[in-house]
Design goal:
heterodimer, A: about 120 residues, mainly beta, globular, B: about 110 residues, six-stranded mixed sheet, five-stranded antiparallel sheet, about 0% helix
Chain lengths: ~120, ~110
């Protein structure tokens, strides 16, 4: 079946613009994660959904970052009033897992490379 | 991540040699430890994982060992090949119980032909 799909693959925006990044998880996957990956670093957790519920958003760097998953499948990460430090690869991952159940492998998308000029 | 340390940051080996990457974690309640391989510009891909009820797991040329007492786990790649060249990340659950993984900073493995 299809893997995790993210769009766009590349996004260039001017500082101050708003951007929206999309993630299509694997069908049937309950859990969805967003990560930010800076060059040469590991993925840093941003937020986690179980179905449509956003259970953890502790990793969002500021209130300019907002994520939603209204129907429990596709998710959108929105960044308002972008700044240069927002430049990074934004990865989405999904897993079968349910709340509190560990040990569920995550499947990643190819990411969106965001560049803020 | 703050509770996962990964070493070394770079590892250069000759084709056919073995490579070992080590991660330490801080939460003794952690029970799931995956390893991901990420090639340049591509997605992280799960290559092997281990749960805390076993000490070792093997899959062909790769293996993972877990020492719960010392709170560290290691990735072992034998008979390395040039296509093994990539960045490898370990992960362990964040403190607090629910599975939000914290990733190590990565190891850039270079296999010279």
């Amino acid at each position: 079946g299809a893997g995790v799909s993210q769009s766009p693959r590349y996004k260039v925006a001017k500082r101050g613009q708003d951007v929206a990044l999309r993630c299509d998880p694997i069908s049937g996957h309950v859990s969805l994660f967003w990560y930010q990956q800076a060059l040469g670093q590991g993925p840093e957790f941003l937020t986690y959904f179980q179905n449509e519920a956003q259970l953890d958003k502790s990793g969002l760097p500021s209130d300019r970052f907002f994520a939603e998953r209204p129907e429990g499948s596709v998710s959108t990460l929105k960044i308002q009033r972008t700044q240069q430090e927002d430049s990074a690869v934004y990865l989405c991952a999904s897993s079968l897992g349910v709340t509190g159940i560990v040990s569920q492998p995550q499947h990643f998308g190819d990411g969106t490379r965001l560049s803020i000029l | 991540g703050e509770n996962v340390e990964q070493h070394p940051s770079t590892l250069s080996v000759q084709e056919g040699d073995s490579a070992v990457i080590k991660c330490t974690y801080s939460d003794s309640a952690s029970n799931y430890f995956p390893w991901y391989k990420q090639e340049l510009g591509k997605r992280p891909q799960l290559i092997i994982d281990i749960r805390s009820n076993v000490g070792e797991k093997k899959d062909q040329r790769i293996a993972v060992t877990l020492n719960k007492t010392a709170k560290h786990f290691s990735l072992h790649i034998t008979e390395t090949q040039p296509e093994d060249s990539a960045v490898y990340f370990c992960a362990a659950p964040r403190k607090g119980g629910s599975y939000i993984p914290t990733f190590g900073r990565g190891t850039s493995l270079i296999v010279h032909p």
